[in-house]
Amino acid sequence: MSAAAADWLSSADVTAAGRPVLSAGEVERHLVARADLEPEESPRLAPLRGCLLVLTSHRLIFLHENSRSARALPLAAIVHPYPPHRKHSNNPLRSIFSSSSSSSLSHHPRIRLQISLPPSRSEVVAIVVSGKGDADVFYGRLLEAIRARAWEVTPVVAPAGGASVAQAAPAEEDLAIKMPVVGVSGILRMEQEAWESAGQNLQDAFQDLNALMSKAKEMMELAEKMRQKLLTNSSAQSNSNDEEMGSKQDMQDWLLSVGIVSPVTKETAGALYHQQLSRQLADYIRIPLEKAGGMMALVDVYCLYNRARGTELISPEDLLQACSLWEKFDVPVMLRKFDSGVKVIQTKTHSDDEVFARISSLAQKADALQKGISPSDAAFTLGIAPALAKEHLLNAESIGILCRDVGPDGLRFYINLLNEIDPQNIYLPKTHGLYHTWISVTTASQ
Amino acid sequence: MQRLGDFRLPPFFNYPPYFTLQPVRETREKQVQLWKDLILDYCRSQKIYIISLEEDFPLFSNPKIERSLSHEAKEVFLAALVNEGRAEWMDKGHKKCLILWLRIQDWANYILNFVKDNGLEDNVMTVEEIRSGIETRGTELAGIDRGVLMRALKLLEQKGKAAIFKGSSADDEDAKENPAL
Fold first, then answer.
1. Where are the alpha helices (DSSP H) in A175-297?
2. Other beta carbons within 10 Å of A322
3. Residue A265 located in a structural domain
């Protein structure tokens, strides 16, 4: 696809892993592995060829996977979609007779769209489904998406610093007598009303699963609103105590991990499921991975990702397959298998040296010099899972930073002193260095 | 400073990983080296010739830090000594180990120097006199393992520097050292 030639369509953002960036409230509806967009009437418009076609609730996105560029056609611009045809000609009879030979290139199904381009130009373009993917299913989904007119529903996005505007809206609608918002009591009452309606939402949501499903979007909005509110609060009240800040931080993290708005599903992605899942996971996991210090156990990723997906859970096999596909894509994360068989996800920039440095300094603390460190100690200090901490310790052992002690308390690791000891002079250590420090620490405690 | 009897223990004797056989090659090599030296030093100072793996050996455990060597670890460290010619397995099952803190050759030289220094050339001494007699008191020869002594004497005999006379009974062997020959 030539970017310059396709300027008649606005360009769309693509994530680092090659997934389209969806706007607030936009949901992915269907994917077609390979499709062209051909203008039928105007030769001035350049066609788009060999694109991944993503149908969302708002747009048709033509994603060129190699160059990671995308063009989007808003569904709002579609004046009328025509049912799929197998031939260039519009003769329905011929399309029936020729449907058996649809494998030939020119017989790919075409979906013609009448669109209006700004300022007020009408064009007819055709979507040619050339890859695997059922044009009829796509057409059905397209019609659904157009009829739903999701783009007309303004998404509730709390503007920065103006969270109260969005919160006030439902309260105003519900109240027959509109009370003026004056002074502190007015703000307090508004807050009270907002919370009451939020509480009502929560109650409704938990009545049964169907209700939950229908309320899911509202829950997401609520979560976002709460997050915004916490953000503004925490910046405004810098003098609040640490514990409060801590719980706010927890709450924020929790809300942030609430969800992926448009998870890749087998239903929407079809044959492209694992590939798209892989890309979405790569985009999603980047931030949690950074927070976790660049490495996470696969089990933790599975839990986190499924929680973010909410109802569209994936199986462990799907996750593993998605992770193994990363090798083929240019994504900043990778799957790593330790010698023990433990599988983890790490960023490509993650280096073991940094971890070793942290372990080394941890093992040189006075307490660790005396009693060593267990995998759970390391997990606690490094803020990672115990299984992962154990892998790091074993790795550090294998390069000679640590050595092991199998004692009554189980497996523990000590900083490696054996290399520090001069075999010619075992009684009088150097007056500096690790061995000397160890002796002074251990003898002081006796 | 921690002691085992009158033996002065090095500080790393209280280092718990010292008592766990290290799986990483380089670390283990270093650990084995430290154990080999400590075993030889200890045996020499305590005049211990035989270490039995089946019985408790004071050096192989440290009650202070509640650590002791596993059977495998003991065997690895002793085998390292055996490889260097500083020890010998006394049975195929590796249950007993003869520690040669002096090699047989070194023992032979030591006997020779002892004889020279004390003017005992051309004298006849019984094996028991060498092991527990007045002349050898305070030297390394006091309390020497009989087997080790006999091998050292035989080495001297081969070189023509000593002669062994067989007595009537098995434990009545005489040795005549003659460094002049």
1. 183-205, 209-236, 242-256, 266-269, 273-291
2. 23
3. no
B18 touching A, CB under 8 A?
yes
Q: Is residue A356 part of a domain?
A: no
Please check whether residues A145 and A15 belong to one and the same domain: yes
Candidates B16, B37, B67; nearest CB to A426: B37
| Residue B155 structure tokens | 């080495």
Nearest to A417 among B15, B37, B66 (CB): B15
pLDDT digits over A346-392, tens only? 888 877 888 889 899 999 888 888 888 999 988 888 878 888 888 88
Residues A276 and A309 in one domain: yes
Interface contact B10, partner A, CB < 8 A: yes
**What whole-number percentage of chain B has pLDDT above 90?**
27
Indicate whether A26 and A131 sit together in one domain.
yes
Asked if residue A326 lies in contact with residue A334, where contact means CB atoms within 8 angstroms, the answer is yes
Query: Closest Cα of chain B to A397: distance in Å?
Result: 7
Instruction: Give the whole-angstrom CA distance, residue B126 versus residue B173.
Output: 6
Which of A6-15, A41-50, A67-76 has the highest mean predicted lDDT (pLDDT)?
A67-76
- The residues that bridge with B177 in the sheet, in sequence order, are B123, B162
| Structural domain span for residue A281 | 270-347
Residue B138's pLDDT is what? 79
Question: Nearest-CA neighbor of A117 among A37, A188, A235?
Answer: A37
User: Exposed/middle/buried for A157, CB within 10 Å: 0-12, 13-18, 19+?
Assistant: middle
Which two three-digit tokens encode residue A271? Answer: 């044959």
For A256-360, list the strands marked E by DSSP.
295-297, 333-337, 343-347
Regarding whether A128 and A85 lie in a shared domain, the answer is yes
Domains belonging to chain B, first-starting first, are 3-99 (1.10.10.570), 104-177 (1.10.10.10)
The domain boundary residue, chosen from A119, A152, A185: A152
Report the number of distinct structural domains present in chain A.
4
- Cβ B31–A416 below 8 Å, yes or no? no
| A204-222 residue pLDDT tens | 666 665 555 666 667 777 7
B107: tokens are 């023992």
CA distance B149 to B130: 9
